[in-house]
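[step 3/7] inverse_fold.run input=structure_tokens len=870
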């Protein structure tokens, strides 16, 4: 929950809108990482990449302000950048790397551009302020488990600090945490995922579940074969209702993780007016994600675009013609990816006083390394060696044996050993920064001292991803992935100033103007300014009006500019599918017929191979933002604070992959164009021939400067506390975010699409809910604290889907309770998250039956913790 007292003490006087969460609130939350606390705040929208995510996150946890994506949220530690963590296709600050025990408070700057800290704070900034002068010894331990008896977590931490009089401080903190994975099949609502739903002529709904690939093999051909394999070369007609493969049995719903951290903070006087400081940290994280066994079939690769085609002359092929065999290679076991991630960061600096001002110089070095080891990977080139009609091919390959892929457990151990391998990939990120600043009073004004700070920064960043050699050669059965490597250098200067114009005057209890400007020069992306101006006016002490206006600029991330093409499977509707509503458009129908696809053509899988990749021709995106609001603190009602702030952020030349904005955009644009004249048609590849002819094998969706993003809304907060005499104290903190618009222009000049109140996609993005709320109620006595937090996420509907077919989610409430008992130096806490075991709404995402980026998938969760401070 957000601490009402600390938030009131800062937000009342801050010129710009700020949300502040104190360290005690974080410690009491039972959270294993900072994102688990912040993502419960309405301003953070959906979760995006999070530490428990099984698909694509590899255990990392990123923050996403205003649903504008994590790469538009600037994350700082003590006002300085923290090294980014790469996860093959993205990079951002991993919240697993932040030591919870050392957090004093977190400031969430909600007004967009922050030139004082960086040009790229498009959505805002999160500044994590660590404890500076901790004295004594603190230790804590926490354990928790879900109401289902799984997902157990535990963590311990110890912190030691000593003050050397007024000369300085040394603080050391270490922690260890562990969380068990949760299998998708262990939640009844997530089993047997719905992959498609159709309304029949009688009005009933016909569902398809699971995947059409099976462990025994599902053979299809252009000649009409549609059969599931039995033992001994026998087969029968495929029945989707009974034969589809339930892959939820072999997937984690929540990934497991182990993490160890060590942090050293120190500062001390070198002379009367000069001090030195340092921040050293090291984090080792091991995460495990689980996916079903490798599947061969319709999905092709760059080297084998037709997928897994078994020729007619193969001795085990009972059909006498070429067939595409959709085969789950269960003999090789599930694909378990173990990610080892290390993060090291060192900051050294000097600061002091001179000539009535203050100065600071620091160097900041950080680097992260990730190794991804995936068991159960398959070498597709070796698979085809085992199928070759030329016996000399297999004979010439070391270890090759003839293989039978038709039927359950038909693959011999020798064949499985030959085609299988452990895929090992690596990624890394390195950041170096040199910062200097000098602040000094300028002149005395009627409201106080006019202060100004002049600063500069030189920064280098470099990132890389290297796939396994088998993948680099294109021999893998999984999605294609190319190497990533690149970086940039920047030189920046900034001026930050605060002018207290008036104070204690008639209708001017306080008038303050803050202004910042930054000038940035990048070796690859040119030069540009960013700026921000803020005004605060309190006519009387009971009310204060505030407003900000500014402009930001974000250069492409390393993966956006240099990323190698990486494929993933997204839910995409082929416009030529016989059940597609797009065929009612005569242009679409004509284009499909032009490709030779009949009116009975059926899309074989709801999940298509979509390849994203970097684009060296990208240019920086720019933003304009403004806020206007008021804070009311009536003298006649002590401890009441009401705040309301309207925000408006407009991103131009926005960088995104079109498939991220809308997975269906590219095929929709192509087939709706006369004679397939759209340039997007060149991004779609269909299987040219064979049993799977006509199926989409690949959609290329590189990062682009799409049109624009316009979002606006209102943040409303209310905090109130009342003393109850000897009984105790009752307090409330109610935080709300109303999303008015989230408009996306997918290409320059095209119409804007309204995302507010919708799910644009159910795999890569979450709900753009129009309303989110968090109400925290606390009752406190001398020895006890009782907390009840109610969170609400407004309903949303999936764009482009019939609302009757599992594509509309109702509003969802979550309730979290906690009790704390204090007897110095001991504190014991017991809590339950999601008290009423609220299940996520059913949505047809083709993978988990809900939206993992928006809703709680664990269910009721119990935790207990204890801490001592000496």
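[step 3/7] decode complete -> sequence:
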């Amino acid at each position: 929950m957000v601490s009402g007292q600390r938030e009131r003490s800062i937000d009342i006087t801050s010129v710009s809108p700020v949300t502040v969460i104190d360290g005690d609130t974080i410690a009491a939350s039972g959270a294993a990482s900072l994102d688990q606390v912040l993502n419960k705040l309405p301003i953070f929208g959906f979760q995006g990449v999070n530490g428990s995510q099984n698909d694509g996150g590899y255990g990392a946890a990123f923050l996403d302000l205003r649903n504008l994506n994590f790469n538009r949220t600037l994350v700082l530690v003590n006002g300085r950048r923290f090294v980014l963590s790469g996860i093959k296709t993205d990079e951002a600050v991993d919240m697993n790397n932040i030591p919870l025990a050392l957090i004093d408070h977190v400031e969430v700057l909600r007004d967009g551009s922050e030139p004082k800290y960086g040009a790229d704070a498009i959505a805002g900034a999160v500044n994590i302020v660590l404890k500076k002068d901790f004295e004594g010894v603190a230790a804590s331990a926490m354990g928790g488990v879900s109401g289902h008896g799984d997902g157990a977590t535990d963590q311990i931490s110890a912190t030691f600090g000593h003050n050397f009089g007024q000369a300085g401080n040394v603080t050391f903190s270490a922690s260890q945490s562990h969380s068990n994975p949760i299998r998708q099949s262990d939640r009844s609502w997530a089993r047997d995922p719905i992959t498609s739903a159709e309304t029949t002529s009688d009005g009933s709904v016909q569902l398809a579940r699971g995947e059409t690939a099976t462990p025994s093999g599902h053979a299809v051909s252009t000649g009409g074969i549609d059969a599931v394999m039995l033992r001994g070369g026998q087969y029968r007609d495929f029945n989707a209702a009974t034969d589809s493969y339930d892959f939820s049995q072999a997937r984690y719903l929540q990934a497991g993780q182990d993490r160890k951290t060590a942090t050293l903070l120190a500062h001390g006087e070198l002379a009367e007016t000069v001090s030195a400081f340092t921040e050293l940290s090291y984090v080792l994280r091991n995460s495990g994600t689980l996916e079903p066994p490798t599947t061969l079939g319709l999905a092709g690769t760059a080297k084998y675009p037709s997928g897994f085609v078994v020729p007619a002359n193969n001795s085990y092929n009972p059909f006498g013609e070429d067939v595409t065999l959709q085969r789950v290679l269960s003999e090789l076991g599930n694909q378990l990816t173990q990610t080892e991630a290390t993060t090291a960061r060192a900051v050294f600096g000097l600061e002091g006083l001179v000539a009535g001002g203050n100065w600071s110089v620091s160097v900041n070095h950080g680097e992260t390394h990730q190794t991804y080891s995936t068991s159960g990977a398959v070498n597709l080139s070796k698979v085809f060696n085992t199928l070759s009609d030329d016996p000399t091919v297999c004979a010439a390959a070391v270890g090759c044996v003839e293989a039978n892929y038709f039927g359950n457990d038909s693959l011999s151990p020798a064949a499985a050993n030959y085609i299988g391998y452990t895929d090992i990939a690596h990624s890394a990120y390195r950041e170096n920064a040199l910062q200097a600043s000098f602040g000094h009073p300028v002149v005395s004004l009627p409201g106080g001292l006019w202060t100004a700070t002049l600063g500069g920064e030189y920064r280098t960043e470099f990132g890389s991803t290297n796939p396994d050699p088998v993948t680099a050669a294109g021999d893998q059965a999984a999605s294609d992935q190319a190497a990533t490597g690149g970086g940039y250098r920047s030189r920046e200067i900034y001026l930050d100033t605060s002018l207290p114009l008036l104070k204690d005057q008639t209708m001017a209890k306080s008038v303050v103007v803050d202004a910042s400007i930054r000038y940035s020069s990048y070796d690859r992306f040119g030069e540009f300014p960013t700026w921000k101006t803020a005004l605060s006016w309190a006519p009387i002490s009971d009310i204060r009006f505030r407003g900000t206006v500014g402009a930001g600029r974000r250069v492409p991330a390393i993966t956006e500019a240099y990323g190698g093409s990486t494929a993933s499977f997204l839910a995409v509707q082929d416009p030529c599918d016989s059940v597609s509503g797009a065929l009612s458009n005569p242009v679409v129908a004509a284009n499909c017929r032009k490709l030779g696809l009949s009116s009975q053509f059926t899309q074989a899988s709801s999940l298509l191979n979509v390849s994203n990749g970097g684009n060296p021709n990208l240019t920086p995106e720019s933003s304009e933002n403004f806020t206007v609001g008021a804070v009311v603190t009536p003298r006649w009602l002590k401890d009441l604070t009401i705040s309301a702030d309207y925000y408006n952020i407009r991103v131009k030349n926005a960088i995104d992959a079109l498939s991220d904005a809308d997975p269906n955009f590219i095929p929709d644009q192509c087939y709706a164009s006369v004679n397939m004249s759209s340039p997007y048609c060149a991004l779609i590849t269909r299987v040219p021939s064979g049993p799977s002819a006509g199926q989409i094998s690949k959609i290329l969706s590189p990062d682009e400067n799409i049109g624009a993003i316009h979002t606006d809304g209102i943040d409303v907060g209310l905090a109130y506390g009342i003393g109850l005499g000897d009984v105790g104290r009752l307090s409330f903190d109610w935080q709300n975010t109303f999303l008015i618009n989230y408009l996306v222009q997918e290409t320059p000049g095209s119409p804007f699409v309204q995302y507010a109140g919708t799910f644009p996609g159910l795999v890569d993005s979450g709900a753009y809910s129009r309303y989110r709320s968090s109400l925290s109620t606390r009752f406190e006595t001398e020895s006890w604290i009782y907390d009840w937090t109610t969170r609400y996420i407004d309903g949303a509907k999936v764009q482009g889907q019939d609302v009757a077919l599992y594509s509309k989610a109702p509003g969802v409430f979550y309730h979290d309770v906690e009790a704390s008992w204090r007897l110095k130096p001991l504190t014991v806490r017991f809590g339950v998250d999601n008290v009423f075991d609220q299940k996520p709404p059913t949505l047809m995402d083709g993978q988990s039956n809900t939206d993992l980026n928006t809703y709680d998938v664990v269910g009721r969760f119990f935790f207990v913790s204890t801490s001592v401070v000496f």
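[step 4/7] annotate
The CA atoms of residues 533 and 812 lie 38 Å apart.
The radius of gyration is 29 Å.
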